[in-house]
Amino acid sequence: MTPVELSRSVLHAVRCAVDDGELNVVVPSRVVVGRPGPGGRGDYATNVALQLARPAGQPPLRVAALLRAYLAREAGVTDVEITGPGFLNISLDRAATSAALVRRILREGLRYGHTDALAGRVFGLCVPYEVRAEVLADVLARMVGSQGGRVEVRHGGAVNLRPVPAPEDPAFLGPNAARWALLHPAPHDRPRITADHLVQRESNPLFRIRYAHARTRAVSRNAADLGFTTTGPETDVEAADTPDTPGAEQLLVLLTDHPRVLATAAALPHADAQAAPSRLTRHLLALADATLVHLPAVLPRGDEKPSAAHRSRLALAEAAGTVLAGGLSLLGIDAPDHL
C-alpha cells in the first residue's frame, strides 16, 4: 500500500464515520500520511483527527478514537495506535503489502506512480530564456503529465520559474549528464558544470543510478540463464513478503514512496513544487543505493538451487530497476541495459 492508497483508506474511514453519524464534519478532499515522528509507532501516521477536531466540536483524542475503529477495518491495516494529542499511527500488513507492491510495479512497468489526479488541470510556467530554466520546466511538465495534468510553458511576461542560472553552457557534458547537472541541485542552488558528472565511478551520483539499473537488468539475464524468471507458473512473488536481504526493507520503503515523490509537482507554480525534479533525483539516488545493497543476494551461490526466495528477490530487483528507469525517463535521461 502506497502513501497515496493509504490516504484514500483514511478518507474512506472518515467518510464511514460521517455516514454513520459518528462525526458531523465535511469530509476533506485529501489527508496527509507520512512517516511517524518522534514518539510515533507503526509504518505511517496522520494528523487527520487533529484536523477534524475543531469542525467536529470534539476533542482530538475523541475524534482519533472514533476514526481508529473505522481505520482498523481497512484492508491491509493491521493496527492503529493513538499517540500524542491525537495522531493515528498505522501499521500495515507488511507481508501482503510488500508482495502486492512488487506485483503492482511489475504489472504497471514504467507507469508505476502515474495517476490521473490532475486530469483536466493546466499549469502555467513563465520562464526566462536560460538553459536551466528550460530544462527544469520540461521536467516539471513531465512530472505533472505523469499525474494527468498539463503544463504550458511560455516566455515573456511575469516570470514564475527562475532557478539560479547555470554558470556556463553544459552542452559539453552530453544530454544525460547535462540534465543531471542542472536538475540535481535545488533550484535556489548554483549548479556545478564540471566533468565530474562524466566519471564512471560510484562517486558520481548519476553513474550510480544508471549502474544500479543496468545491474538489475544483468541479474535478470543471469537468472534466465540459470532457469528462473519472475514470469510464468513457477514465480512466487508472495515470498517477497518478508525482506530477507540487506537493503530490501529500505528498498521497499523507497518503492512505496515513489508515487508521492512524483506527486510533489502538483502544487505548481508554488516555489516548493518547483523543487520536485531535485527531489526526484535524490529519491532515485537513495533507491539506487538500496538496490546495489540488495543485488548480491539475488542469485543462487555455488551449488545452491533457485528457490522461491530467489525468485522473490529477483522480482524485487526487477521492480527497483523498473522504477529507476521510469524516474530517469521523467528526468529526460536514458537508462541503458548495459553500462
Major sheet details: 4 strands, antiparallel
User: Which secondary-structure class do the elements indicate?
Assistant: alpha+beta
- The N- and C-terminal alpha carbons lie at a distance of 33 Å
Helical content class: 40-55%
Query: Radius of gyration over alpha carbons?
Result: 22 Å
Total number of strands: 6
Mean pLDDT: 90
Q: Which sequence of strands runs across the widest sheet?
A: 1-2-4-3
Q: What best-fitting shape do the alpha-carbon axes yield? A: flat
Q: Beta fraction of the residues?
A: 5-15%
List SSEs in N-to-C order: HEEHHEEHEHEHHHHH
Residue stretches low in confidence (pLDDT < 50, at least 5 long) are 232-236
Question: Count of DSSP helices?
Answer: 10
Describe the protein in words.
The chain contains 10 helices and 6 strands; from the N terminus they run αββααββαβαβααααα. The chain is flat, with a radius of gyration of 22 Å. With 339 residues, it is α+β, with helices and mostly antiparallel strands. The longest helix is centred in the C-terminal third of the chain and has 23 residues, at 308-330. Helix content is 46%, strand content 8%. Helix 7 (205-225) packs across helix 9. The strands form 2 sheets. It has a 4-stranded antiparallel β-sheet with strand order 1-2-4-3, covered by helices on one side. It has helices at residues 3-19, 48-56, 60-71, 94-108, 131-146, 174-183, 205-225, 248-262, 276-294, 308-330, and strands spanning 33-34, 44-46, 77-83, 87-92, 122-126, 150-154.
